[in-house]
Each structure stands twice: as C-alpha cells, then as structure tokens.
Structure to design on (470 residues):
C-alpha cells in the first residue's frame, strides 16, 4: 500500500474560500479514485493561505483485475449472429468462449479478464479532472494561461509512493518540491512523503494544519491579554478568518489612543475587526480596553515593534475618520435626515426606503396594539429606524447600521425604548441570531420583516434564504 501526497502552491487564497476548497479537492480526488476502482485507508486535506494539500494513505499499487462476462447467442444461432457477437469482443474467437447451459439451452459466454493498470498511470487523469472541476466561487486566468485558478498557481507537488506523478495543470508540471514561508523561508524544499513534508514545512515556518494555527493564535492571544490584566473579546468568525490569513502566526499587542475611547464600543470593535482584523480586549469589568491584538505573519527581528507601530498608525487614521463622522452626525437629528431616504432605492419594484418606512410605520402601529407595545413609540421608532443609513458613520462602517442609530436617537432625546428598537429592528439577522424581546422592538422588527416578505412575494421574487437580501 502506498501514499499519495498532493500540494497546489499559489498566491494567497482568500480566507473565506479555504475550507471549502480543501473539502472540494478531497471530495473530487476521492470520487475519481472510486471511479477508477482504487480504494484507500485514510485521506486528509489541509489548507494555508498559499497551499492546498491532500494526503491519501493506503492506496494499492495497481487497480484490481476485472473479470467481465458477456452472454452471447445460442450455439445453434445463425453464423451472422455469431460473427456479430465475436465482433463485439475485440478479436476473440468461439474457441475462447465458454459454452454454458442456461435454462435448458446452450449459450456462448465470453469471459474477458482486464488487468488493472498501475495506480501511477491512473492518477494523472484523476488529478487533472479534480483540478479542472474544483468549483472556486471566483477564479482568474493569468499570463498566457487558458486554465483558471483562484490565484496564480506556481507549483504542484505530487508524489505517489515517493515518486513524482506525471501530471500538469496548464504549464505547471508536478515535481517533488514545495516552498516554505514567503518571507522567512522562501527557498524550494525537496520532500519524500507526507511526514517529511509536514516536518520540513514546520521547520520552514509553515503550520500546515489550520487547527494548529488556530490553537497557536488562541494561546498567544490569551497569554498576551492575561499578562496585561485583560481578556480577549470572543469572536469566532474573526478567529476563523485570521487563521486563514497567516502561515506562521505571531500575535502582537497594540494600543488605542485614549482620545478615541469615547466612541461607541461597536464603532471601535467593528473598525478593528472589519477593516484591520484586530481582536478587541476587555477589562475585568467587561468594558473595552484601550488595546488590541493583531496577528502578524512573520517573526520580526525587533520583536514586532515596527509591525505594532504600523498597525497603531493605521488604526489611528481609521478611528480619526470615525470620530469625525461621530461628531458631525450628532449635529443633525435623525428626524431631520428622514427626507434623504427618498433618494435611496429599496427595490426598483418596491419603491424608496422612505416608502418602506411609511409602510413599516403603519404595520408597527397595528402590531403594537396586539402585543402590548406603546403604539406611539413603535411608530416613532419605525419613522427613525432607517435614518442612520444616510449618516457618515454608516457610510464609513456599514456594519454599525441600526446600532449607531440607537446612539444618535438617545443624543436627540428620543425615548429609550424607541432608541433600542432602532438598534434591534434588524434582528434576527439569521437563524443563529437572537430575536428582540422588548415590545416596541418586537413590533418594529416584525413590521420591517413582514413588509419585506410580502413585498417580495407580491413582485414574484420569493425569498429563498434565511436572511433579508437587503
């Protein structure tokens, strides 16, 4: 039994595509092996920003021999029928056929034995088919290539039983080499099998297994935070994304200027998460600390001081913009922004956002009476719930829509349940999100979703997912 080792080495694969690509490569190769009659013991796929890897262990050295039986005409059949049968057998004669009694009659039966091909001869076709069928959400051509890949493909490592598999994708032909970390160990590395491959990659500052990179990030982050008397704000999505951005994670602690700490915490966390991929840190009382964690992709000779300073500088510029919008937006009330909603198209067949707000206000008032919510407050919240869409803050950081509206509403002197309804009316944003429980928030959230559902059904664009497409 032998091992197949495959690595496709390219420019950076977007983090959001990595897990799916690894699973697809594994599935496609396994399907090809099954069709070729090849079994195996174990298989595993790995992915880093620059490489897709698959290892299949326990493959046979050749396909199994196949015996095919073909029933022919009766032995007493006309000569023409016998010739036709022999012609379909590819050169066999009647002497090569057996005579068998079947239900009291004698028939010719041809037994054709097909020797299994060496696995090394079968693999090129299996791998090529997998490369061409890999369903990237987005792909590209580069240079003079007619083939497509997610990013320019530089190298293919393909070994079966320690020997190079004769396979190519466009002009990239397989060999027995890989490459280490882009900055720390960029030279070519010759490998013999998966164990050798994984060990040498680790020595070249590449953690092949995403689970290992993730664990390393979590461990380093927890230690840095604990040493500073802080804790890491949990963020599963960000952790998953950052794991796909680095091959050798090094976590660094940075500082946020105190002048920005009066911004809403959601503005701080979303700016750091969405734009910079930073982790937020919490004090012992659960409030945001003036610090962040960033994950570098290399070991710096200065201990990461220059990298940290650069990240602090970029964050300072981001937060300066956010603070400007925060200060400017609060000079105008949400109610005064409402007329601008007429200029935003909700849907070509359903009118502007202002028209949607009018419908939601009417629905919210009706629903409020049924669930014990304050009707006036529900209608007021509906009037204002979309107004933050035309603020500078939402234009800069779309992820804070609704949430920032709450802060602006409180700044305008609106009632607390009105402000909360503005923040919560988008919920639930999906199957895993919590539903609003406050009566006014519930009334506005239900009205907003009913209007969307009824509207799309009315124009025969039936929703197919669990999330509002708009």
């Amino acid at each position: 039994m032998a091992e197949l080792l495959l690595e496709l080495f390219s420019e950076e694969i977007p983090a959001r595509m990595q897990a799916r690509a690894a699973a697809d490569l594994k599935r496609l190769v396994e399907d090809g092996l099954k069709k070729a009659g090849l079994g195996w013991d174990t298989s595993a796929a790995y992915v880093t920003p620059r490489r897709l890897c698959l290892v299949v262990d326990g493959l046979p050295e050749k396909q199994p021999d196949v015996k095919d039986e073909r029933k022919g005409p009766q032995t007493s059949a006309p000569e023409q029928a016998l010739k036709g049968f022999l012609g379909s057998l590819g050169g066999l004669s009647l002497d090569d056929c057996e005579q068998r009694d079947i239900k009291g009659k004698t028939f010719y039966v041809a037994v054709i034995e097909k020797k299994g091909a060496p696995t090394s001869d079968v693999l090129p076709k299996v791998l090529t088919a997998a490369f061409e069928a890999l369903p990237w959400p987005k792909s590209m051509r580069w240079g003079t290539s007619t083939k497509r890949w997610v990013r320019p493909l530089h190298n293919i490592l393909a070994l079966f039983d320690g020997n190079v598999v004769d396979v190519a994708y466009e002009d990239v032909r397989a060999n027995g080499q890989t490459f280490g970390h882009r900055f720390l160990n960029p030279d070519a590395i010759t490998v013999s099998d998966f164990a050798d491959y994984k060990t040498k990659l680790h020595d070249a500052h590449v953690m092949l297994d995403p689970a290992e990179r993730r664990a390393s990030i979590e461990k380093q982050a927890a230690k840095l935070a604990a040493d500073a008397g802080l804790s890491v704000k949990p963020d599963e999505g960000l952790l998953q994304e950052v794991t796909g951005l680095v091959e050798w994670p090094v976590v660094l602690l940075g500082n946020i200027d105190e002048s920005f700490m009066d911004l809403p915490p959601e503005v701080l966390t979303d700016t750091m998460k969405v734009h910079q991929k930073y982790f937020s840190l919490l004090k012992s009382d659960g409030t945001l600390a003036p610090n962040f964690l960033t994950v570098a992709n290399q070991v710096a000779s200065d201990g990461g001081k220059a990298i940290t300073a650069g990240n602090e500088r970029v964050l300072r510029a981001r937060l300066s913009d956010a603070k400007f919008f925060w200060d400017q937006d609060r000079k105008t009330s949400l109610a005064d922004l409402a007329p601008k909603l007429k200029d935003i198209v909700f849907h070509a067949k359903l009118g502007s956002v202002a028209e949607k707000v009018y419908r939601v206000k009417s629905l919210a008032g009706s629903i409020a009476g049924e669930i014990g919510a304050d009707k006036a407050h529900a209608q007021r919240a509906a009037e204002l719930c979309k107004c933050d869409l035309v603020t500078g803050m939402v234009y800069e950081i779309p992820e804070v829509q609704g949430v920032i509206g709450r802060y602006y509403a409180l700044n305008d002197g609106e009632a607390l349940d009105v402000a909360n309804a503005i923040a919560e009316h988008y919920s639930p944003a999906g199957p895993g999100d919590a539903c609003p429980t406050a009566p006014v928030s519930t009334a506005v959230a239900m009205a907003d979703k009913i209007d969307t559902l009824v509207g799309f059904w009315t124009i025969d664009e039936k929703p197919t997912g669990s999330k509002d497409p708009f």
Q: What stands out?
A: Residues 66-114 form one domain. The first strand starts at residue 2 and ends at 10. The chain has a mean pLDDT of 94.
